[in-house]
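If your schedule permits, I should be very grateful for your opinion on a structural question. Thank you for your consideration; the sequence and its tokens are set out here:

===
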Amino acid sequence: MTKDEIRTAIIQEIGEIAPEVDASGVDDGEDLRDALDLDSMDIFNLIAALHQRFDIDIPDRAATQFLTIGSATAWLADHVQES
């Protein structure tokens, strides 16, 4: 799976969690909490959705990697290929 495909999946999952926001225009380095007004429960739900979508374990210690689209994409790209 390419990084572009992973990024697209992340944006789709954000759209499911917070349908009132448009994540497609968010810069990869922007904090999702600030850019889209997501709260900690939204981030938790995003991680849970990505866990299901990619069928991989995402440890609690990796949660900070899911605060930006860029870091989430990089983390998933490294781990999806391993599984």
